[in-house]
Specification:
By secondary structure, the chain is α/β, with parallel strands linked by helices. Helix content is 41%, strand content 15%. It has 2 domains: 132 residues, Rossmann fold (3-Layer(aba) Sandwich), CATH 3.40.50.720; 112 residues, UDP-galactose 4-epimerase, domain 1. The protein has a 7-stranded parallel β-sheet with strand order 3-2-1-4-5-6-8, sandwiched between helices. A two-stranded parallel sheet has the order 7-9. Helix 1 packs across helix 6, helix 3 runs parallel beside helix 4 and helix 7 packs parallel to helix 11. It starts with 6 loop residues before the first strand and ends in a 6-residue tail after the last helix. The structure holds NADP nicotinamide-adenine-dinucleotide phosphate.
């Protein structure tokens, strides 16, 4: 391991951030974890919590160490671009040595779609800042299945999706967090790099249903629905229109077989194959029983 640097993790209470601070804690490497509310702080050895809001650049400076490293993630929100740009500016002012940004497999500054555009614009700000950076573009994560899909399987032994037979190489968020940990602790190998992180195999929802059936030891059915039905469902759930348009575009592309790309980034960066969907469902079996 290279010389230890002070690391700051933004989004430390979130899906990837919480895994990442656990990895630092397990490795006995001190880390600063940022949250807007210390009530959400998870007490862990070697983790020091800091309360700050990415909406306010001045609050961020004290959390960031000169010559240190920063991990940047936050959930989609109307102020996402401004807030993540504030972190980049604060990191530059503090004189950080490396910033790792969690991005999306779909990141285009000129995209008409909300999530690709918000990540694309922040990526542009980062590449134009004077900070050595690493961008982790994550494919869709397996952990998304722990919400509505798992509930539907528990209740009805079936679930629905609008991607037809289209495949995607979903990635386990634990692999994404391990990649982030490696990049932050051995930064020199990863300066000015963008990695597209996928699972090891593109799968469709027939494959997912078979993997869940095997774990719960009962038949679980995948019920394909149309894009129009999916849109109506998201409207009934009151999702913001910008997110609905993004998710419909993602599902359309997957239906059309345009999202099956598999990369070797995770296996090269971790020195082992990515976790499979079978491993994922075995590890989370109780959520689907
Ligand atoms: N899910 C996927 O399949 C997938 C795939 C590719 C990329 N991504 C990207 O992954 C990222 C994470 O999304 P998620 O929905 O899973 O969210 P999340 O990581 O579970 O949670 C959001 C985190 O952001 C922090 N945060 C939000 N606004 C903040 C602010 N103003 N100041 C300080 N902290 C703030 C929250 O901290 P507090 O609430 O504690 O303050 C929380 O820790 C997104 O950028 C998403 O586009 C997701």
């Amino acid at each position: 391991m290279e010389q230890a640097r002070k690391i700051t993790v933004f989004g430390a209470t979130g899906k990837i951030g919480s895994d990442l601070i656990q990895l630092f804690s397990d490795a006995k490497i001190p880390v600063t974890a940022v949250t807007r509310s210390l009530k959400r702080a998870i007490p862990l050895p070697f983790v020091q919590w800091h309360q700050a809001d990415m909406a306010h650049e001045e609050q961020l400076i004290p959390a960031i160490a000169e010559g240190g490293g920063v991990f940047l993630t936050s959930g989609p929100s109307p102020d996402f671009i401004q807030e993540q740009t504030n972190v980049i500016r604060a990191a530059q002012r503090a004189g950080v040595a490396h910033l790792v940004k969690l991005s999306s497999g779909e990141a285009y500054a000129s995209s008409p779609l909300f999530i690709p555009r918000m990540h694309g614009l922040v990526e542009t700000a980062l590449t134009q800042a004077d900070i050595p950076y690493t961008i982790l573009r994550s494919n869709g994560m397996m952990q998304n299945w722990l919400g509505d899909l798992a509930e539907s399987v528990r209740k009805e032994r079936k679930f629905h999706e609008s991607t037809g037979d289209g495949k995607r190489a979903y990635v386990d968020k634990r692999d994404v967090a391990e990649v982030a940990f490696n990049c932050l602790t051995k930064p020199k190998n990863h300066y000015v790099k963008t990695y597209f992180l996928t699972g090891g195999e593109a799968v469709n929802y027939n494959d997912v249903a078979a993997a869940i059936s095997s774990v719960v030891q009962q038949p679980v059915a995948y019920v394909p629905i149309s894009l129009e039905e999916s849109r109506r469902e998201m409207e009934q759930q009151n999702l913001p229109p910008a997110l609905i348009e993004t998710f419909i575009a993602y599902d359309t592309a997957q239906r059309n077989g345009e999202k099956a790309l598999v990369t070797d980034c995770v296996s090269k960066l971790l020195g082992r194959p990515p976790r499979t969907i079978d491993q994922f469902f075995a590890d989370h079996a109780d959520c689907f029983r």
